[in-house]
Each structure stands twice: as C-alpha cells, then as structure tokens.
UniProtKB/TrEMBL annotation:
Quaternary data: Homodimer.
Needed co-factor(s): Mn(2+); Mg(2+)
Keywords from the UniProt entry: Glyoxylate bypass, Magnesium, Manganese, Metal-binding, NADP, Oxidoreductase, Tricarboxylic acid cycle
EC class of the enzyme, as a word: oxidoreductase
Domain Isopropylmalate dehydrogenase-like, first and last residues per copy: 2-334
InterPro entries reported for this sequence: Isocitrate_DH_TT1725_C, Isocitrate_DH_TT1725_C_sf, IsoPropMal-DH-like_dom
UniProt EC number: 1.1.1.42
One Gene Ontology MF term: isocitrate dehydrogenase (NADP+) activity
Catalytic activity: D-threo-isocitrate + NADP(+) = 2-oxoglutarate + CO2 + NADPH
Name by which UniProt lists this protein: Isocitrate dehydrogenase [NADP]
Amino acid sequence: MEIAVAKGDGIGPEIMEAVLHIFKAAGAPLNYQFVEMGKWVFDKGFGNGMTPEAKSTIEQLGILFKGPMETPKGKGVKSINVTARKTWNTYANKRTFQTLHGVNTVFSKAGIPIDLTVVRENIEDTYGGIEHQLTEDVAISRRIITRPGSEQVIRYAFEMARQKKARRVTCVHKANIMKITDGMFLNTFHKIAQQYPELTVDDIIVDDLCMKMVTRPESFDVLVLTNLQGDIVSDLCAGLIGGLGFAPSANIGDNICIFEAVHGTAPDIAGKNIANPTALLLSGIAMLQHLGLNATAAKIENALLYTLEQGFHTGDFGDKATAALNTTAFAEKIIAHFGKTPKTGAKTAVADQPIKIEVPQLQENLLLHAKEPVTKTLAGVDFFIDSTAQPGEIAALAQKYSTADLPLINISNRGTQVWPEGSKFTVLVDNYTLRFEATEGQAVTQQTIIDLYTKLANEFQITSVETLLEINGQKVYSLAQGQ
Ligand code: NAD
C-alpha cells in the first residue's frame, strides 16, 4: 500500500523518522512516496507551500501522512496546513483524546477517565480567511457556514459515533448569538440526528461546554463543532489529557485524507532529538486503522500504552525524577515493547484487512447544492458606509432616497441600532449600516438596489453591500441589536 509522506519543518523530520521506524519494525505493509511541502518549499517560491509534483502524488495516492509545517509569517501566504485541508476537501477533522496511563494530569490523578472525540468542521467558518478592512478603523471577517458543508461533517460524526457505539453525540455551537450561521449548523445536526435514533444526542452552547469540560469531562463522548470553536475546544481537550504532545488528528475527506499531529513545528526544540513523537504516532495509528491495518495498529498502540504506563517519557512530560528519553530512544523503547499489553486500555487486535484506496479521476469540480427547491425573495439591502457623522445627520441624507417600495428602516453601528431609536451611550465607529427593507411580503429587484447604490454613492463612501433575502418566507438576515 502506497501513501504520500511529508516530513514537515522544525521537529517534523525527527518525529516522522521515529514513527516510520516504529512502523517498519511493526511490519506495517506501507510504501512511502516522500513529497515536498512546507516552509522550505515556500522559500523556493511555491506560493502554496507544495511543489506541483507533491500535489499530483497526493491526488493520486489519496493518503498524506504529514509532519507539522511552518507558514512564513508576514509574507501574505496562507497556511500550508489549512490550504491542504481545504484544497482536498478534508471536511472532517477528527481528534481523539483519551486518558493515557503514565501521563499525569489533574484528572488522571483524581481517577476521572477521559475519552473524547472531537469532530471539527475543517473547511469553512472564519478559516475561509476572507477578510477586508472597510474603513480606517473597521476590519471584517466573513464567517462562512454552508448547509452541504455542515451536512458532510455532521454525517461523518454520526457514522463514526454509530460505529464506536458512542454514549452521546453533542453539537457544540453559539446559535444563541449567531442565529443564521450556527443556527444552520445546529438545525442540520438535529435533522441528521433523526436518522440515528439509537444514539443519544444533544446540543450545548460552546461557553457552557468549556465550563463543563473542565468540571465533568467524563460526561461527554463525541463532540461536533464548527471550525474555529472546534479548534479552541480541541486544544482545551488536549490540555485535559496532558497537552498537545498527545493529540492526534485525522483530516477526513471522501477522496483524500490527511493524518498529522495537532501540535506545530516546536522551533524551540527542533534539531535536538528531544521532541515527543507520541501525537504523530497516534495519528499514524489512526491512519493504519483507516487503512484497515487494525492488527498492526493495535500492536503499536499496545506497545505505546505499555511504554507510557511503565513511566518512560520524553522531556516534555512524565516524572521529573526519572531520566527523560530522547526521541530515538523513546521510539526504540516502544519497539522493544511490541507484544506487551498495558494494564489499562489494551486494544484487541483484529486481523488486518487492508482497504484499497481508489481516488477517482475527476473531470470537473463537485458542486454541492441543497436538493430541496426553495423560494427566494429579495427583501432589501444593507449598505455599509464610511462616516464619522452622527446618526441623525446620516439619516437626513439617506432618507432622501427612502421610497415607499424600499424605505430606510434603520441605521446601525457595530450591529447596534442607532436610528430611528438608539442611545447616546452607544459608542460609534466610522462604519455604519443603512438598512433599506421592503414592506412585509413585497419583493424588490436587483435594478432597484443598483439605482439606490448609485444615488447613495453621491452622499457616502460605500464600503460594502449585503442583500437581504427571504427564503421560503423566512427572513434570513440578522436584526440590529435594539431593532
Ligand atoms: P507548537 O505546537 O509548535 O509549540 C508549542 C509548545 O509546545 C512549544 O513549547 C513546543 O516546544 C511544545 N511542543 C509542541 N510539540 C511538541 C512535541 N511533539 N514534543 C515536545 N514539545 C512539543 O506551537 P507554536 O509554537 O505556536 O507554532 C510553531 C509553528 O508551528 C508555527 O509556524 C505554526 O504555524 C506551526 N503550526 C503548524 C501546525 C501543523 O502543521 N498542523 C499546527 C500548529 C502550528
């Protein structure tokens, strides 16, 4: 079985070498095609951090095992890690966090077991990286949540939960504030949940989850979240089980999957052969399981768990009274423990049943679109303008263009209504939103909006325009605070 391997930057090559050495000793039936990705590839002038050969090898083989990679700072280039996940639509990021005996934490000392699986949406949200500065003082970021994107990751989470007979599947969100975006994610979750009646499902607001995660982490099992909240919550989970050195990650797509550790390149310890290879090894074990190499995965995992249980450790964790092993010696210790079984958490070996990875040759891009037809009505428009005038002055100018068909209904600043009603205590910045909205049930045309744009442009510097939609008669835009 052939897979693509990118060693990465910083500690990447050291920990990758250790892991591949363990794979070889375990007899993993894998061949590697080493591909060029990472900081030094950016430095060679490849703006996306990978060579064309690397891209085509990965698209042919369908599996990438990668070390951490550094994105050059301040050069305007996007993160290679995020680019890889997005380019190949690895829509679900699965991270598992389990109590590891030998890795002391407040929870392990208190005898509280942790067994969490975080499924984080991996493509959308603020990771679209679509940001604009609108005025001298105001910058915005677009947070994209889509129904098909949500469906893909949520369905994956449920399928995985069904397979592992999960105790509970929890959707984590902030739909009380982000009613349209997180509302779409949450509604999609509950809709798909109906197809998994055997599973216990619920949802929780992300801040409440963070508090409960610290007080009662054992009560959760599978968590499914949007991208940024998932990023933060998974680092919280890593902290619960002993830190980033123990957090594996699988980026799952329909055609291409990427396996990597959660941690970064650890530049402070790179080149010293002291890094902890456990997170990359656990990611590698997840990859072996994904490839159907369950017996090999179990052999390595049992040896790793036994090694940790026996108190062997690298410098970043473990009993300070016992000497730390370097990366190479730690890997050798795991190999020496092949065939041993840990007292707790032992994995049962099921025979290897290698799967055949077949990546389709695509002629065009797949476009995901809602299957059910909807009625869409253009109900109005929000104009964002650059101004340091007072709300009343802006209203006086804008009202000249307010019509019976498309009246100016309010003005807001940072999402808070400041006209026609407002408070003098609301602090303003140099970007206002003028909302023109048709009367209930009436539609406007694009041309009406274009004409209004032309007129308003005589009075204001327009920084952005957002149309207001009704879908199936429902307003799908937010109200200003106080509206
Ligand atoms: P980091 O994870 O590299 O390091 C944070 C701290 O954890 C450091 O003190 C480091 O020494 C320690 N650490 C991390 N991994 C370790 C290991 N395996 N063994 C022992 N100690 C370990 O995070 P950072 O310093 O914020 O980021 C450094 C670089 O890594 C940045 O360029 C960042 O963009 C990149 N990064 C890449 C990925 C990825 O490739 N998926 C993820 C995160 C960060």
